[in-house]
Amino acid sequence: MSAPAQLITCPQCKTVLEAELCGRPDLTPCPSCQCPLQVLVFPALFRIETAAQPELVMAAGEAGCFYHPQKKAVVVCETCGRFLCALCDVEFDGRHLCPNCLAGGKDKGEIKKLQHQHTRHDRMALALALLPLLVCFYTSLITAPMTLIYAARHWNSPVSLLPRRAKLRFSIAILLASLQILGWTAFFIFLATK
Amino acid sequence: MATQDPEYAKLSAGGVTTFFGLRLSNASLWLAADHLLQLKLSFDNRETSQRFYFRDIQALILVQTNRWQMGNVILGILTGLLAFIAALTYFNENSTDALGSVVALLIATGLFGLIFFVNLVSGSTCACYLKTAVRQEQLSSLSRLRRARKAILRLQPLIEQAQGTLSPEVMAAQFQTRRQELTLTQPWLPGQPLRYTEVIKPYRSRMHRILYGLLLLAAGATVLNIFRPSVPVIMLKMILQLALLASVILALIKQDETDLKPALKSLTWGVGGYLLVNALVGYVILLSTINTQHTPATQWAFIQTLAALQPMATPWWLDLLVISAVISAALSLWGNLLLGKHWRDKAAAPPAVTAPPPTLT
User: B39 lies in which domain range?
Assistant: First the structure.
């Protein structure tokens, strides 16, 4: 639980901080717990957000909202085409969407900006290739082919929001796994010929 | 091919300093044209992103923490101790077995020394928080003061460009208004700093009293061990050690988000650290001492070996016991004093009152 939005509290002792403590260039002790802190406050702290107020349908023939038929429609959802009132209109990334399309877009991964979690497949592949070398080499008999399959399967999967050297990690993982497979093959050939 | 976002520029990258400077998970900060992106990479290789739009950032709060000093002290002691034991082993033992032990000890010394050095040059630690209307998020990669200040210097103009600046007069007036609004709903002690009491619970537990009492008993048991080492004394010390560990964990849980004095809270964390270091140092010294005699096969044999160790005849064991007894007694005394002051202040404080509503003009 945190303090109300318009309050700045000391993260250590939750004491409400005074204006004199904010905007100082150096660390200043908290008046209560004395821990040194620096606070920078911006105008958004005092901005009052007002919720949209939808208008009622006044005349016959005026379109009503799909979710609230008694409210006047002001916009059309750009994904499903449903009429939306001011309350249901979600403006996101320059588009007008209804809450359902927004939730659906997030769940299906269609709206990229709403994606907040990625599995780093490149690191997984590299870990799979490296782990047997560090822990128990015999497991590489299983993990090396697994690494090749994993890397091939996720070669083109998105791994991050940022430009990453995913291909480099995948390549190292493939190289290591290939070497391990080669080593095992040589070992088995040696056993067979012996 | 990975989805690429070329507009991001790295603001800060670094580990979440959670254990004496060792990087346990990765976090990084990236700047875009209109927002700040925080990426956290967990142990299972899942990368979680959080966006903070410049127009929504209400405040940046930087708090200096004492993890740097604590890390330096603990790592310094460990490094020095290991080096000392290595030197002792080298000069006292001439066998080839001892050479192996010396090499192992030197490797451990080098490892701890390296971590100590990295921690030392990295500078003071801090916690940086970013506040928006819906949450206050810690920026985990800004865990060192120097790095955090550099990042804030880059962030501040971008936020001000998106929101404008606040004059000190406007800020003071707005703070005053908010404070008045808060005192209408929050119990407030006149003359005391105003706290957001919804998150501050009154401390009612007796766990700290038990903990600091047990510390005194542990100090007494250690003194007894110095003069009369025996199996019952060793067993008593072991039971007290276990009880102390349990009580310090419970005390740390009980003190969380309560009105207990910050100094007492910090001291309890310090006691936890001391118990861990004490256990570790005792273990290392005992192993090195026992190895020179014979290795006990069972737990009972181990206790008997401990009881047979004569502190007066083993200088290093004696030093450790004396230091342990002194620190335990000092911590106990200090804790009890702070605890007494806490209860006295609570008894003397006037009951919390809700401030009267401001007069409407």
Answer: 9-58+127-144
